[in-house]
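Input (structure):
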């Protein structure tokens, strides 16, 4: 009898897999499947809860590494070790027991590097040596799940992806643990009252925003001058510009004088040329995660992290394919089912058109360019009206955007007519450009997007419109702050400026900051660390962010292109062309180089009041209610009596039922034995509730739901 154990990344994924089979039993740690043609003897699905396993912290290796001291740097363990993540011991033990009983283990975590890392970190820590197979799917639909389990792959590629992910994880640990301490401790010598968190990818990302901040701050507006003509033709008016653009007004005036033109006079111009060209624009490429994030940010101001969350929800609802993809292409297989479902998708989108083509086009369909995942597209399951009603507005927006882009493959080109008029006034030629929509084509799938038309009146060659000429004065404009969507694009291109978002596809080999799956998380991290702020979708750097950038300026941590090269090498590890150990060794060399550079690079940092004060640990909060001699103090992750060495074991948690317990709450509990009603607690099923807290005789905190809501006890 062959025992098959399947590891999903999280419970919702396990549930989706189980729905493709018949379930025998369910427990809080696993699901048992009935025998099935794919699993003749049944199978067991268990799961992680995200990361069950994490890298050990410095103090887990050496107690001397717990305190932040310059003399203890660099922190480089001889062998990197892992441990069970806090609060996840029970599930880890369940997975361990099942792995030990298994004959074959299936890695069914997300099909990306982090999914491989999650699985093999658990597998390695458990210490079993069992055959491993890999589930490789792009959709949670029943048919694709069953086909994926029927066609399980070997784990050769999976292991390489794990090597890449582990190299990234360890190098990020090394940079974070060492650089954060290094820069913070040197700055604290200068009087800095807070700390800096530094990361291999997040710090260059902050530096990108800092560079834009400096461009805006240092920008000096300058006037520039052009010659503008205003024309009154038989069928309407229009304007044009001569081919001159100068900062020196005298040069522009000299050209006007050369052609004997005066501002006050009216002249007769002559239309020398009317050039009309029909231009065609093809529908956009299919969405990768970053293009979807960029468009959604521009359209609805959704932060990139929110877009990923919504796309993940739609994936779990079996409406979209796997969202963490950097690919804009699909294979012939996906194209075939999209063709069959095209009418259903039109109905869902509330549109109707006759397809211009049902043949695959290499702009969209190219199996050679599909690696781990294809583009984000709708699944074979076109949602019913009831299912659509159950989607949130944000989910509808994202789903409709993907649907419209996908249907664009089958639609007509967008066609417009571009008109250029050359108008001669006293030998000086003025150029006017206008456009007129001929056929909306695929753009009719996006009704909310405004389409500007810059119409010119009908004129004929030889026509002589009235003309007035004047010098047009304008001012140069500073660069605009990045939006969050533009920041995703800048990370993807490692800071290379791309004015037209469509030009991103021209960059054949993009060596970006982070990966498609991690960029939005990096932006959220630097927000939480107060390095950047986002107001009305514009990203600005904070005083703390400026301090960070002044500190890392001149080091590799400020170089997006260098960090992108690191990312490129990580990809080589995943492809079997690079070495995990080489990457880690090079990261260690980088840390040692940073230690030499840091003191001089920090000399130019200007200390700023960033509204944060240095945490004063071990300061008394309140007299211990038990021993009466010690004091309750903040012990970083919990509160405890300072007399613990003398035997007092009183401790209080920092967080209780999802709520942070403040020093004032602990003080009230110790002095009054109860608090007022507090809001913001969360039950195991994620429902919020309010309750007072009380302290029992053994100094344990208890919920008290009987306290009246208007109780003002302090």
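Output (sequence):
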């Amino acid at each position: 009898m062959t025992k098959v154990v399947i590891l999903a990344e999280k419970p919702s994924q396990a549930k989706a897999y189980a729905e493709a089979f018949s379930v025998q039993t369910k427990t809080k740690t696993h699901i048992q499947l009935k025998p099935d043609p794919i699993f003749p003897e049944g199978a067991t699905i268990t799961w992680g809860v995200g990361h069950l396993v994490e890298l050990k912290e410095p103090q887990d290796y050496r107690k001397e590494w717990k305190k932040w001291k310059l003399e203890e740097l660099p922190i480089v363990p001889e062998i990197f070790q892992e441990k069970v993540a806090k609060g996840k011991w029970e599930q880890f033990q369940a997975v361990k027991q099942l792995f030990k009983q298994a004959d074959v283990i299936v890695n069914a975590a997300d099909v990306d590097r982090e999914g491989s890392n999650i699985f093999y970190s658990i597998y390695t820590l458990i210490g079993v040596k069992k055959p491993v197979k890999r589930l490789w799917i792009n959709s949670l639909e029943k048919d694709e799940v069953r086909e994926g389990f029927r066609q399980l792959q070997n784990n050769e590629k999976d292991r390489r992806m794990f090597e890449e992910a582990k190299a990234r994880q360890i190098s990020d640990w090394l940079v974070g643990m060492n650089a954060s301490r290094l820069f913070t401790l040197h700055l604290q010598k200068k009087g800095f009252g807070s700390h800096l968190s530094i990361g291999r990818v997040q710090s260059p990302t902050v530096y990108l925003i800092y560079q834009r901040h400096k461009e805006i701050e240092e920008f000096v507006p300058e006037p520039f001058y052009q010659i503008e003509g205003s024309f009154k033709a038989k069928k309407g008016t229009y304007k044009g510009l001569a081919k001159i653009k100068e900062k020196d007004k005298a040069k522009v005036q000299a050209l006007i004088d050369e052609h004997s033109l005066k501002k006050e006079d009216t002249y007769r111009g002559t239309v020398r040329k009317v050039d009309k060209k029909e231009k065609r624009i093809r529908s956009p490429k299919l969405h990768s995660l970053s293009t979807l994030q960029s468009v959604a940010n521009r359209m609805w101001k959704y932060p990139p992290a929110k877009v990923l969350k919504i796309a993940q929800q739609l994936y779990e609802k079996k409406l979209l394919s796997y969202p963490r993809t950097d690919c804009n292409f699909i294979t012939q297989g996906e194209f075939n089912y999209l063709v069959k479902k095209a009418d259903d998708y039109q109905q869902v989108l509330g549109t109707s058109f006759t397809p211009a083509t049902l043949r695959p086009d290499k702009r969209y369909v190219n199996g050679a360019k599909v690696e781990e995942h294809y583009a984000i597209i709708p699944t074979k399951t076109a949602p019913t009206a009831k299912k659509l009603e159950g989607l949130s507005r944000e989910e509808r927006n994202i789903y409709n955007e993907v649907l419209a882009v996908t249907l664009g493959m089958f639609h007509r080109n967008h066609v417009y007519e571009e008109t250029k008029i050359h108008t001669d006034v006293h030998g000086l030629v003025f150029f006017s450009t206008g456009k007129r929509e001929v056929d909306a084509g695929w753009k009719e799938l996006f009704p909310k997007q405004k389409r500007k038309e810059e119409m010119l009146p009908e004129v004929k060659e030889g026509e002589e419109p009235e003309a007035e000429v004047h010098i047009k004065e304008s001012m140069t404009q500073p660069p605009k702050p990045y939006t969050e969507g533009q920041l995703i694009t800048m990370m993807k291109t490692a800071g290379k400026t791309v004015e037209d978002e469509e030009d991103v596809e021209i960059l054949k080999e993009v060596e970006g900051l982070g990966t498609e799956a991690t960029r939005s998380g990096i932006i959220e991290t630097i927000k939480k660390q107060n390095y950047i702020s986002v107001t009305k979708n514009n990203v600005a750097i904070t005083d703390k962010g400026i301090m960070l950038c002044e500190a890392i300026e001149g080091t590799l941590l400020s170089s997006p292109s260098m960090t992108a090269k690191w990312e490129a090498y990580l990809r080589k590890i995943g492809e079997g062309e690079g070495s995990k150990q080489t990457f880690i060794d090079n990261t260690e060399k980088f840390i040692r180089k940073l230690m030499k550079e840091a003191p001089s690079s920090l000399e130019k940092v200007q200390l700023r009041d960033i509204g944060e004060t240095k945490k004063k640990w071990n300061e008394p909060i309140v007299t211990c209610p038990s021993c009466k001699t010690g004091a309750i103090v903040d012990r970083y992750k919990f509160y405890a009596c300072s007399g613990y060495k003398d035997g007092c074991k009183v401790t209080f948690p920092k967080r209780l039922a999802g709520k942070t317990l403040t020093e004032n709450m602990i003080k009230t509990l110790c002095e009054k034995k109860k608090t007022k009603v507090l809001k913001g607690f969360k039950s195991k099923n994620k429902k919020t509730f309010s309750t007072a807290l009380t302290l029992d005789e053994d100094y344990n905190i208890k919920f008290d739901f009987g306290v009246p809501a208007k109780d003002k006890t302090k």
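Notes: DSSP finds 19 helices and 26 strands in the chain. The chain has five domains: 4-52+88-154, 171-218+480-601, 223-282+414-475, 289-410, 622-704.
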